[in-house]
Design a protein that fits this description.
- The complex is a heterodimer of chains A (about 290) and B (about 375).
- Chain A has 12 helices and no strands.
- Chain A is mainly alpha-helical.
- Chain A has one domain: MetI-like fold, CATH 1.10.3720.
- In chain A, helix 3 crosses helix 9.
- Chain A is globular, with a radius of gyration of 25 Å.
- With about 375 residues, chain B is α/β, with parallel strands linked by helices.
- Chain B folds into 2 domains: about 200 residues, D-Maltodextrin-Binding Protein, domain 2, CATH 3.40.190; about 160 residues, D-Maltodextrin-Binding Protein, domain 2, CATH 3.40.190.
- In chain B, strands 1, 2, 3, 4, 5, 6, 7, 8, 9, 10, 11 and 12 form a 12-stranded mixed sheet that branches.
- In chain B, helix 4 packs antiparallel against helix 12 and helix 7 crosses helix 8.
- Classes of the chains: A mainly alpha (about 290), B alpha/beta (about 375).
- Chain B: Keywords: Periplasm, Plasmid, Signal.
- Chain B: InterPro entries: SBP, Sperm_putr-bd.
- Chain B: It comes from Neorhizobium galegae bv. officinalis bv. officinalis str. HAMBI 1141.
């Protein structure tokens, strides 16, 4: 076999396998196009429609909705609120979930499976139900307030809900199972032998944690933070119900424009803004992940 | 329906006689007027989309069922929709090939939909009852007609509030601090503004600034602007003392759930959330549908529905019993002060007003 023929002989099976690969991917791709890409294109189109509700009827193109959003300081404040809510929820959810995830990842208990299932069990109930649970706990006549009052620790009612505090607290708890799951799957590189080696070389437990465990678990932590952040800034039920109408975030505004004032193009433009926020955060995340890996 | 009727006939001799007599009278009337004969022979199906829950039950029982009894050739289906926005989405999607003939929809949404060509103009020759409707109820050139008004009222918990409020001004009373639920970022707010304007001696067509100033005095008392699950449950659970919400549902809950919820109809009068009925453009059953609209707007259907649902009727020929009127509009003083809005004007302002409530009152409180 000549040297020139060799690459050709190599590429043809490669081509065939690529063809098979494409064929195998096709059903998934079609499903993605129908369920994900088409609605997204429709959303984009709707955001450029002119009539306040004729987004479905086609018609002319205009950037009016975008100029409304971009030149109105109220929407900038809403976007800022959304980011702040997202960051707060992501940071606290990760801090609270980290020890749980670390324990679940390292434990050799025979109940490990049960414990993991317990940690993510809240996902089995709807977040609406859990939001109502938090309303019972944090309400003016809720568990915390009535306990404090019956112990005479406080004079009046402490406002724990119907504001952004309530929304943040409830979102943290509601999104913690996602953080735990993301961290568990990201903790694959943790290795007890490395920790033992460090300990043998004289590192104390804090040093082992900061020099070995934390760096190795960082990708998982970052993924968890990203997931929680994205879920938090796109959430709308919890901020709406726990915020008592006072928490204005992009999710609640999209809902309002779409269902109350029926300005669908504006709702679509706000959704696109939210998407842009998502994408920039995901880009940042990928940068950070690459930096961690090198 | 037919089986129910048959049971009644076989079970009760007197009603059988009455029914026969009724049928005989109806038969004679049919002979007298060819129009009626045509009506009775109209066949087809009328597909309605409208509000869900208790409204749907009442509408079926007190309007659709009697209509079907009167026009056996016409079948009526009722599809429930969560809210008017969803109904509008449905109608917009079906625009090329409508499966819905009649939509029951909130007035502000109806005007928007009508401007977008969703509804057809009603034919006054077919919907004769239009003559009995007041001018404000015939919207956008008879493309949607108001059929009921559910008053905005102050609801209170009968256990915790011993002296129910009598005036909208009572909402500013500091004793209710943190005790009021008020979902105002929708039609409720849009209706409350003209009421508060009137209290402040202003006119909503000129400016809503006085109303917003008054609302800002109520705001410190508001515990939640987003009562969950709704503005009635928070009263019943004792979470708040007062709630600004609709009369009809509250009256129903008062009767069915032990009177825990009370309705205070303020003496300055109120305005109703107005529901409209509209014929869908390009409806395939336009003749039968207009027959239905004519019936639904008629005095018989209007009075029955008002009595059972506590939604104020719109037809000017309807006379309500005093007791019913009191539960719909409140005291005689409140009845005299009852207002109606120029909805064509308000529909234009709808989103601006909500935006101002959201930004100038709710976001700052």
């Amino acid at each position: 076999m000549s040297a020139a023929a060799l690459p050709a002989a190599e590429t043809s099976p490669a081509n065939a396998s690529r063809g098979i690969l494409l064929m195998l991917l096709l059903p998934g791709l079609i499903a993605l196009v129908i369920t994900f890409l088409l609605p997204l294109i429709w959303l984009l189109r709707a955001s450029f429609a002119s009539s306040t509700m004729g987004a479905l009827s086609g018609g002319d193109w205009t950037v009016q909705s975008y100029s409304t959003v971009l030149f109105d300081p109220f929407y900038w404040r809403v976007a800022w609120n959304t980011l702040v809510l997202g960051f707060n929820v992501a940071i606290f959810a990760v801090i609270l979930s980290y020890p749980i995830a670390l324990f679940l990842a390292r434990t050799e208990s025979r109940f490990r499976g049960v414990l993991t299932a317990l940690a993510v069990a809240p996902l089995l109930t709807s977040s609406v139900v859990r939001t109502y649970g938090w309303m019972v706990i944090l309400g003016d006549r809720g568990v915390i307030n009535s306990t404090l009052q019956s112990l005479s620790l406080t004079g009046g009612v402490i406002r724990l809900t119907n504001n952004s505090l309530g929304a943040t607290v409830a979102l943290i708890e509601i999104l913690m199972p996602y953080a735990i799951l993301a961290m568990l799957s990201g903790f694959g590189r943790l290795n007890t032998q490395l920790e033992e080696a460090a300990a043998m070389l004289g590192a104390n437990r804090l040093r082992v944690f900061t020099r070995i465990i934390l760096p190795l678990s960082a990708p998982g932590v970052l993924t968890a933070a990203l997931l929680v952040f994205v879920l938090a800034i796109s959430s709308f039920v919890t901020p709406r119900l726990m915020g008592g109408g006072r928490v204005f975030v992009l999710g609640t505004e999209v809902f309002n424009e779409a269902t109350v004032t029926l300005n669908w193009p504006l709702a679509a433009a706000l959704s696109v803004m939210l998407l842009i926020l998502f994408s920039s955060i995901i880009l940042l995340y990928q940068r950070a992940l690459r930096a961690l890996e090198t | 329906m037919t089986t129910c009727m048959e049971n009644r006939i076989s079970g009760n001799g007197i009603s059988r006689i009455l029914l026969r007599a009724g049928a005989a009278v109806a038969g004679m009337l049919a002979l007298l007027g060819t129009a009626q004969a045509q009506d009775a022979s109209t066949k087809g199906t009328v597909n309605i989309v409208g509000f869900s829950g208790v409204f749907a039950d009442n509408y079926q029982k007190f309007i659709i069922d009697p209509f079907k009894a009167k026009y056996p050739g016409i079948d009526v289906t009722y599809q429930q929709s969560k809210n008017s926005a969803e109904t509008l989405a449905l109608l917009t999607l079906q625009r090329a090939d409508p499966k819905i003939d009649i939509a029951l929809i909130d007035v502000a949404v109806a005007i928007k939909a009508s401007k977008d060509g969703i509804f057809a103009k009603l034919d006054p020759a077919k919907v004769k009852v239009l003559d009995e409707m007041p001018a404000w109820a015939r919207l956008d050139g008879d493309k949607a007609v108001a059929f009921s008004q559910d008053n905005l009222a102050i609801l209170y918990n009968t256990d915790t509030v011993k002296q129910p409020p009598t005036s909208w001004n009572d909402l500013t009373d500091p004793k209710y601090k943190g005790k009021i639920a008020a979902k105002l970022g929708d039609t409720r707010g849009v209706i409350l503004l003209p009421i508060l304007d009137k209290l402040a001696g202003a006119d909503y067509k000129q400016s809503i600034d006085p109303a917003l100033a008054l609302l800002k005095k109520i705001a410190p008392n508001v515990s939640t602007w987003e009562p969950a699950p709704d503005c009635y449950a928070v009263i019943q659970s004792g979470e708040v003392d007062l709630s600004i919400c609709w009369n009809g549902r509250a009256q129903y809950l008062h009767d069915t759930q032990g009177g825990k919820i009370g309705v205070a109809a303020p003496k300055e009068g109120s305005i109703g959330q107005t529901n409209t009925i509209g014929l869908v453009e390009n409806s395939k059953n336009a003749a039968a549908a207009q027959l239905f609209i004519n019936y639904a707007l008629g005095t018989e259907a209007q009075a029955a529905f008002a009595e059972k649902s506590f939604y104020g009727p719109v037809n000017t020929k309807v006379n309500l019993a005093d007791a019913v009127a009191a539960r719909i509009y409140g005291s005689k003083e409140a009845q005299a002060a009852q207002m109606s809005l120029d909805w064509n004007f308000v529909a234009e302002k709808y989103s601006t007003w909500i935006q101002r409530i959201n930004r100038e009152v709710i976001a700052l409180n």
